Amino acid sequence: MKYVLYYWPGIQGRGEFVRLALEEGGADYVDIALVAEKKGGGVPAIERFLEGEDVERAPFAPPFLAAGRQLIGQTANILLFLGPRLALAPRDAAGRLWVNQLQLTIADLVDEAHDTHHPIASGLYYEQQKAEAKRRAEDFRANRIPKFLDYFEHVIERNPSRGPWMAGATRTYADLSMAQAIAGLRYAFPNAMRSALRSRPRLARLHDAAFALPRVKRYLASDRRLAFSNDDIFRRYPELGG
């Protein structure tokens, strides 16, 4: 099956978690963000689904995925759908739910990282909430990053397979998403993450193992992998980095 991924052009965003799964799973897919508007891609293609009166089950926002006649929104929901189809999830129901639970917890971490630079409202510019962002970032660095990373470090430690992954003996989409989250946090909070990963070697190992997977490595080296930027979820502002 050929999948079609809809996400905003020019940024990694939440769509990147889906891209990593599609790439590692060897999926045949079209990334609408890379398709020119005159060829049916870009922002107009997304808005047709968000604003179209004929879309019965419209998504709230991208990312969303077209899979045949199905239209699936929300990052974790898309990955729950793709996981078994791309051999990126356990075969048993309990295992699939566990990986989905991990993915939802990663989503919480990503949302909190976003809110360090937009603590009051997403509709306001960062410059309109800098004082509040500084307070939010201080707490995020001191308390929330350690809390989340401790949890995921213990998940890997308790995995009976004793490998680098969080669930079972092979990688899942949650491992790819965890690697992406670590990479984003390293970009946004380099000093805090340097210290945090030093005392959490299992997470550092997971990051390196996921990004060394051959298909992922080829994707990361391609021009399809966009760089982190201050228009994205993870942003590097010196005044927030500590």
Tertiary shape = globular
Please state roughly what percent of the residues sit in beta strands, choosing from under 5%, 5-15%, 15-25%, 25-35%, 35-45% or over 45%. Answer: 5-15%
User: Per CATH, which architecture of the largest domain?
Assistant: Up-down Bundle
CATH class of the largest domain: Mainly Alpha
In helices, the fraction of residues equals 40-55%
**Rg from C-alpha positions?**
18 Å
How many domains? The number is 2
Counting helices, strands and paired strands, the structural category is alpha+beta
Query: What's the N-to-C terminus distance?
Result: 46 Å
Verbal overview:
The chain is globular, with a radius of gyration of 18 Å. It contains 10 helices and 4 strands. The longest helix is centred in the middle third of the chain and has 29 residues, at 130-158. The protein has helices at 15-24, 42-51, 75-85, 93-115, 130-158, 173-188, 190-198, 201-211, 214-221, 238-241, and strands at residues 2-6, 28-31, 64-67, 70-73. The N and C termini lie far apart (46 Å). Helix 1 (15-24) packs parallel to helix 3 (75-85).
